[in-house]
Each structure stands twice: as C-alpha cells, then as structure tokens.
Amino acid sequence: MNIQTKVRQLLLYLVGLGVAGCSTSPPEQQVGQGAPVASATSVAQPATAEASTPSSGSCPLPVYDMEALNNRLTEKQSLPDNVVARLVRQYPRLPEMFRKTEDGLNLYALDTVRCPKFRLVSYLYQGYDYYAYLYYVTFSPDGRQLLDWAQVATIGADEGWYARASMRLGPNGRLRVTALVQDASDPSTYVTDYQDSVVTAYRLTPQGRFRHTRLDSVRRDLPPSPPEATPDQPAG
Questions:
Q1: CA-CA distance, 100 to 95, in Å (whole number)?
Q2: pTM
Q3: Of 39, 50, 143, 215, which is most buried, counting CB atoms within 10 Å of its CB?
Q4: Mind listing the pLDDT tens digit for each residue in 71-101?
C-alpha cells in the first residue's frame, strides 16, 4: 500500500465514512466522552470509532461536557495539518474555521454516529488557549457529499469576553444547549458590562439537516467592576 492510499484511508476513517469496516486491522479509538449518543457527564474514557444507530432509528445528537472535554484534549490527539487540508479540499462546504491551520489551532475528530440515511461526525476546533468551538457535520452514507453542519457550542475567555455552554438531551430527542456569554459593549475598552444567556434546541431531520429553535434569550447589564486600589502617595 503506497503512502497516498494510506493517507486517503486515514482521511475517510476520520470522518467516519467506513474505512474501519474495510480494514483488516482493529479500528482505532477516537477522542470523545464515551458512547456518543448518551448524555454522559464525564469524558474520562475515549469513544469508539463509530456508534451504531439506536434501535429506535432516531439519531440523537451527542452530548458533551465541554469544559472537561476541552481540558482533556492534547495537541497530539488533533488531526494532522495535511489531513485537515485534504478534508477541506474534499468537502469545500466545511466551516471556514477548519481552513485555519497554524501553531495553536487544532481540530479534533470526536465521534461518529451512523444514522439510517447519513453519518454524523462531531469535531472540536480549539484556538490557542482562548476558545473552543463544537461542530456537528453530516455526510451522505457513501461519504461523497457533505450534507450540513452546525456550530452548537462555544467556550473560552479573552480580554473581557467569556463564554460557557452546557448541553443536555431532552425527552423529545432535541439537544438543548444553554450558552452564557459575557462581553464588552465597547470592545476597545475590554470592560465586561453585559451578559447574554441563550437557550437553543437542535435536532436532525431524517435527511441529515440541522434545525434549531431559540427557546429563551435574556440580556442583563453587569455591575461595574470596583476601581483598582492604588497605593497611598507619600506625603510631600
């Protein structure tokens, strides 16, 4: 097997499009939180390469503890730059963020869920030590077409901006994401003066398209920070 063939198989495996089933070697494990269709609160164990379609035929979206996941990932677990480059060439409709590959910017393939008419792959894009974005991407079963994608959660902090996200799977199968963001009205001041709390529900159609509904949105002003203490000036 030549190098090009090996790289192509690795690329297809990483997007969960069936290479593991064609290989004679045991499938590798991908980084994740455990069974991707379960709302586990721990990310202590890696996920298997693929999760089978639930017996009901539905495809609940994976649920992650974003803080724990982001803290556990290491740069060695990220996709190599050459693999990411091939990925975006093959699927030009991938998020624009995936095209940014430099030191400190890392893309991780988390889990794959096999659904009746598509495959769902979750990715985490990590930017330096400041932020992380969670993306869900759907592909056709044969891997020739990217169907849809959605950015569902963001965490991070930098110069007055602060973001956290929590996720849970509702009884109706929709993924409920609560985003908490604090930021500055005037970015040049770096003074955090408001907070947004937004609750959004996500679901997948049987054709692998994402649908989302905003359930709640609240903005409130934050009290000004107390002035920094200054040392007493010596008497003149």
A1: 10
A2: 0.73
A3: 50
A4: 999 888 999 999 999 999 999 999 998 988 7
